[in-house]
Protein 1
Amino acid sequence: MSNSLNPAQHEAALQLRMAAEHGQPCAPVRSLLGELDVDAAYAVQTLNVQHALTQGRRLVGSKIGLTSRAVQQQLGVAQPDFGRLFADMAIADGEEIAIQRLLQPKVEAEIALVLGRDLPHEKHTLADLIGAVDYLLPAIEVVDSRIAGWDIRISDTIADNASSGLFVLGSRPVLLREVDVVGCGMVLERKGEPESVGGGAACLGNPLLAACWLADTLARRGDALKAGDIVLTGALGPMVPVRAGDVFTARIQGLGQVSARFATTQGEAA
Amino acid sequence: MSLLIQEMALQLDIATQCHEATPQLSAQQPFDLATAYRIQQAGIRLRQQRGERVVGLKLGFTSRAKMIQMGVDALIWGELTDAMQLADGGTLDLSRLIHPRVEPEIAFITACDIDRPLSLAEAGLALAGVAPALEIIDSRYRDFRFSLQDVVADNCSSARYVIGPLCAPQAALDNLGVVLRFDGRPVQIGSSAAILGQPLRALAEISRLLHQQERVLPAGSLILAGAATAAEALRPGLHVSVEVAGLGSCAFTTGEPT
C-alpha cells in the first residue's frame, strides 16, 4: 500500500489510535475522510496496522464485518468490510476479559476458520476455500468502536479496523465436512437467556462466501491470507451490548459452544 | 356473562369468515384471561358445529422478548383444527384471509396422552415425531393490534398451518438452524433456540398449563411449539419455504391476485 496519505487521513489515524490508547472514544472521522470513501478509510486502517506492527504486535488473521443485510442497509452499503486481528486480541474460552480494555463493547457469535493453506489468488472458488480450511471453531467476537456512541458510517468503521475489539475462540476444532455452515442455528445466551438468535445463512447467505470475498479482496491488495490465519467470518445474529460481569455463551449447531466472561470490576480482572 | 362470551366469539368468527378486521374486543368490554379462553372455546365450538375437528394446539409467546413485550410470564395457546391445515406444497388462498403473516415453527406429534405436568426429560419421551412447519397467522383485529386477552380470545391469531415430513424425535432439538425463504431468498434466519431456549421446554410448559385446566391432550395430537423467528407479511405470488437444519423443509405458495 502506498504511504501517500493526506494530512486529514493522518489525523484520522491518530485520533483513532489515541482513542484506543487512552480508552476515550473520539468523534467520527468521516468528516476527515468522506462518508463513503472506502479507499481512504482502508488507507487509515493500514496506517494504524503498520503502526501496531512497529509496536511488536503480531498479525494472526482477519475479520469480516458488515455481513448482515440489515447492517449493510443501515450503513447504506452493499458489501462487507474487513479488519485485522492481532495475537493480543485473542482470548481463550473461559478466560476472563478485563472490560477496561474496551470502550463500548458488544458481542456477536461467529464461525471462525483457521487456514491450512495460503489463498493467494485474486479470485478463489469455493473449492479453493474449502481445500484451504484446516478447521473451524465457534467464536464470540467482542466488537468495539473507538467512535463515540457507535455513531459510525462505512468510512468510520473501516478506518477503525472494522470496529474490532477482542475475539474468543472455542477449544475444540471441528472439520468443515462435519458442519452445515449455512443451515446451522446459533444462539447467544446471557445467564441462560437467549439474547441473540440466528444462523449460518445470516452471514452473507453463507459464511464461506464471506471468506471467499475476504480472500479475493486481500489478495488483490497484495496482502493475501496465509496458512495459519484465523478468519472471523461475520455475525450469525444481532449484536448484544456488554455490561461488566456478563457471561455469554454462544452455541452453534454442529460446532459446539464458546463462552466470553467479562470481569465484574477492574479489580477482579487481574 | 356467558351471553357476552357467545357474542364476542361470534364477532371474531364473523371477522374470520368474512375476512374483515374487527375492533379489539377488550376495547368494548374489558375481560380477564380466563374469560379470554372461554371466548376462544366458544369460537372453537362454532367451528366444530361446522364439522371441523380439533387436532392439536398452537403455542404462542414462546420467546422471552415477546413475553416481555406483552407483559406476561407464561405462554398462551390456541386450538388447531383439521380445516386449518394446508398441504405441504399447497396453495394458500389469500383472498380468504385479512392480513396474513407467516412464521417458521417446529411441530410435534405426541406419542401418548399428556395428562400431567412433564419435566423437560419426559417431554422428549412424549413425542412420536418432529417436523418443520409453517404457521400462517391472521389476527382478526385491525392492524394486528391486540391485548393479551384479545389475542387469546382470537385463538392466538391462528389461521392455517403447513406441516413438513415427520422425523423421528431427535436427541437434540435445542439449536436447529431455521431459514424462512420467500421465492428462494432468506427473509428470516433463526434457530429453534428462540422457542423458550429449547422447543421441548414449550411442551413441558403446556403440559403444566393443561394440567391446571384439568385437560388431557390425546396421543397423536399436533403441537406447534412456537415461532423460531419474527413473522413476515404475505403477499400474492410468493413461494414460501422453511428449512430446519436436520429436520427438512416444507413450503406453500400464495395464489396470484385475481
Note: Chain B has a mean pLDDT of 94.
Protein 2
Amino acid sequence: MTTSTGRYVPRRVNWNSTSGSSPASQAQGVEEDAVAEQLLIGHPPNAQAPAVERIDSQDIAVAVDGVSMIYRVRSSSEYLRSKGVTARQVKKILGAGWAEIPALEEISFTVKQGESVGVIGTNGSGKSTLMKLLTGKIRPTTGEVYATSTPIMLGVNAALVKQISGRENIRLGCLAMGLSPAQVKEKFEMIVEISGLRNSLDMPLKSYSSGMQSRLQFAIATAVDPDILLIDEALNTGDAQFRARTKKRLDEVRAQAGCVFLVSHSLGTIKQMCDRVIWIEQGRLLADGEPEWVCEQYEEYTDHKSNDRKRSAQIVYDRTRLKLNPVTVSFDRGTRPKRAS
Amino acid sequence: MAAPTTERETPAFTAGQQRTVQLDGTPLVRVGARPGLFQYIAELWRFRHFIYYDSRSRSSSQNSMDSMGRLWMVLNPILQAAVYFTIFGYLLETHRGVVNFLGYLIIGVFTFRFIQGAVTSASNSIAGNQKVVQSFNFPRAALPISSAVRELLAAGPVFVVMAVLVYALGDYQIGDMVREPVSLSWHWLLFFPAIALALMVMTGLGMMLARAVNAYQDVKHLISVGTRIWFYGSAVIFSIERFATHEWMLWLMYHNPAYCVLDIIRHAWVYDGFADPYRWVVLGCWAVGSLVIGFLIFWHGEETYGREK
C-alpha cells in the first residue's frame, strides 16, 4: 500500500474554519464585530458564492437537510463523569443518569430517482444511525429527512417473536409491514423458498439457530417492494447457498425500486452496484461522489488505521474532506414538506 | 445499542466549494412525521389484521413455558379466589351483608384480573416492544390495542370457567352466609356489553399510560401500586356499603369504572336483575371518554416511540 506522498495536501486547514475569527472581523472595532458576525452567519468569509443547482421535482427521491443525531441514553455508570463529590455520590447511589452520545454531525445531501448510493464507513462511524434516520425510526436531533415515500430498510434486523413458530412469524412480520392477508398468502411461498426453512416452519422460533433466524428475518423483509430501498449488510448473511438464493430476489427488488441505498463493508459489492458513494467517518460526511475515487480513499484510510498509523490516517481523512463540496438544501418558498406519508 | 462513541481528532471544517440545491418540496413528505388524526385512524384500520393476528398469536403462546400450559390461565384466578375467600371472607368475615358471597367474590376476582391485566400489558406495550417498534413502520397505537385485545382473548376461557363456577357454586352456603338461588336467565347476556365497555376503558387508559411509560420507565412502578389501590377501591372482595362510611367514599366508588363493571355483572348473574342504570351511564362515559382522550394523547406522541433509551 502506498502512502501516496505525491498527492499530499496539508492537513492544517483549520485556518478557514467558520468557528475561528476571520481576519476581516479582527481589523474592525468591537462594536462592528457583532454586526459583522451577524452578517457572516451561514456565510463563511472565505467561501466563494455557492454554486446553485436545481433538481427537477420529478427527479428528487430523498433530501436530507442538516440532519444530526445525539443519542441520550440511560446509563448507570454516568456518575463517573460528575465533577462534584456530592453529585457524584448521589448519582452513584441512585444508579441512574443520562449519557449523551454524539453519533452524527450535521449532514446534508440529496438523492435523485434511479440512483444507487453506497454508504461506507468504519464501525461506529454513524452509518446505522443514518439509516435509522432515513427510515424514520428515530427522529433527528436537528434537521429533517424528506422523501417521496417512506424508505424501507431491508436487513436482518426485523423483529421476530421468539415463542411462536416460524410460520406465524412470517405472517406476523408481513402484516406488520402493511401487507393484506391476501398478499401474505401470495408471498408466503416465496418467503419460505428464500429462507430455505421449509422443514422447520412449525417449530417455535427459539429452537432456531441464529443463522436460521437471520435467514428468516431477511426473507420476511424481502416481501415488500419499496420505492426507496435501504439494504443493510444483507448480502453478507448466511452460507453460499443462501446467498445465491437471495441474490435473485434482491436483484428483483432493486430493479423495481426507484432509489437504493446500500450499506456494506464489501467495497467490491459497492463498486459493482452503486453509481455514487457516501463515506461517513467519525459521524461526519467525508466524501460524496465517484465510487472508484471514494473507495480508493477509504481503502487507504482503513489500511493506515489497521496498521496503527494514526497520523497518516488523519492526513487521508483531512485530504478527503477538503475535496468535499458541502450541500445546502433550499426549498422553494413555501414548499418545505410538513405532511406525513 | 448502535450508538458509537466517536473520537473526533479534528474540529469540523469545510474547504470545498459550497453547493446549494434548490428544489420544489411538493412531491416530498417528511419521513417519520405524525400523520393527521383521520389519516392515522385510516392507517390503523389498514393494520387491523396485524392487530388481530398479533394479539391472537401472543395470547396462545403466553403460557407455553409452563408444563401445564394454558391451564394456568384458569387455575391462577381460581387459586386467587380461594385465597381471598379463606382470608377475607372466612377469617375476616367480610361476607357479612353480602348475599351469595361466593358468587360475588368469584366475579370480582376473575373480572378484576382481566381489567388489571389489560391495563398493565397495554401500558407496557410500547416500552416492552422496542425491537418491533424500531423494525416496522405501523401506527404505534396498534400495539396497546392489540395488547388489550390479547388480554380479552386470553380471558375467554377464564370467563367460561367463571360462568360455570358462579352457576354451580354461586349460592353455596358456608356457615351463616346469606343465600339466594342463582338461576340462568337472559340477564346473563348483559355480561357482554359490560365487558366490551370495560375493554374500551382499559384500551384508553392503556394508551395514556403507554406514552407515560415510554417517556419515563419509572411510571411502571407506580402502575403496579396504582392497580393495587384500585383493587381495594373496587369492592372486589367486600361490599362497599359495609366499609364506605363517608359520603365521598361512596361517591368515588360509584364513579369507578371497575366497580360499575363488577356491579353490573353481579346483578345480572348472581341476583338475576338489573344494576342501577346509573352504572351504565358512568361506565359508558368512561369508555368513550378514556378511549377518545387516550387515543389523542397517544397519537400526539407518535414520533417519540422509537427513540433509543
Note: The radius of gyration of chain A is 24 Å.
